[in-house]
Amino acid sequence: MVAGAVVIHQSIPVLDVQYRCIAKEIEGIVNMSAAAAAPSSPAFRQAERGLEAATAAAVDLTVPEMDLSASTEPPQFVPSIRSGSFSDIGHRSFMEDDIRIDDLSAPLGSLLRCPAPSAFYAVFDGHGGPDAAAYIKRHAIRFLFEDAKLPWASSEADKDFVESVENSVRQAFLLADLAMAEDCTVSSSSATTALTALVFGRLLLVANAADCRAVLCRKGKAVEMSQDHKPIHASERQRVEQCGGFVYDGYLNGVLSVTRAWGDWDLKVPPQGSPSLLIAEPEFRHAVLTEDEELLIIGCDGIWDVMSSQYAVSIVRRGLRWQAARQPP
């Protein structure tokens, strides 16, 4: 996929996202709805802020007037989310990038026992054909939420809850890789990267395997919520070499530009019993959302190959302000 500044700027419809201060007696009553507009991305907003999730796109933010007189306790920050997405085939002959954006309360219903709002965003950037990315998109909910069995937490997410979610998502990534290997409908030459972002209440948890990237905007500054897993990075190169592999001209064993992925099973055959050169295990980063977070962008390397994280954030913020100025008062 090729996604540049123009593509992102043109694909920024404004999605109103509200922040609500809710009295303790009614906390957790928050709706999350997907955007009905044309291709876009997600966001939240406090005054001129919000949180957002996207892929080659972005989202907007807004805060209604709050009546805090009913509660004597300090107001509690609760994000209310809307999301959208955009994909562009670029110069390729077929689409390899698949995007999944869901409100978890819709597909899971009463099975979901986590702080509200609950949301799931993901980018699956395929290579070697579209089979792998399309397969993961179809089965993402089952792998990540039904088979992996997320832990329950009805109130604020604590350290134990975060660790439990990480373990569940890690298991889901590994099981998805095995399931795809056993499915005869997926070409053996097809593979995909994976980046997922989960929102449970004020918790944002990002899991990444390969070179998609999540960037959080905090007071206008880009905060990277993932590391690109490429052979040129020292830690990944060291792991590959310890497993008996090598990096040539920036490629794993001279053939692959990433060091983690679902698929590419020929690179997962352990030489002489050593760990695999290419792994599907994700790395995690998490953040507690406050009014300072404005948006979240998630996208494949087609974006990050042509712009920095800060530049992408600046484009999105500028586009959101431009769209907001066009809205009727």
UniProtKB/TrEMBL annotation:
This enzyme's EC code(s): 3.1.3.16
Domain of life, per lineage: Eukaryota
InterPro entries the record matches: PP2C (IPR015655), PP2C_BS (IPR000222), PPM-type-like_dom_sf (IPR036457), PPM-type_phosphatase-like_dom (IPR001932)
The entry's keywords: Hydrolase, Magnesium, Manganese, Metal-binding, Protein phosphatase
One term of GO molecular function: protein serine/threonine phosphatase activity
Enzyme class: hydrolase
Domain PPM-type phosphatase: 82-329
Cofactors required: Mg(2+); Mn(2+)
Record Gene3D superfamilies: PPM-type phosphatase domain (3.60.40.10)
Family in the record: Belongs to the PP2C family.
PANTHER family: PROTEIN PHOSPHATASE 2C, PROTEIN PHOSPHATASE 2C 49-RELATED
Protein's name in the database: protein-serine/threonine phosphatase
Species name: Musa balbisiana
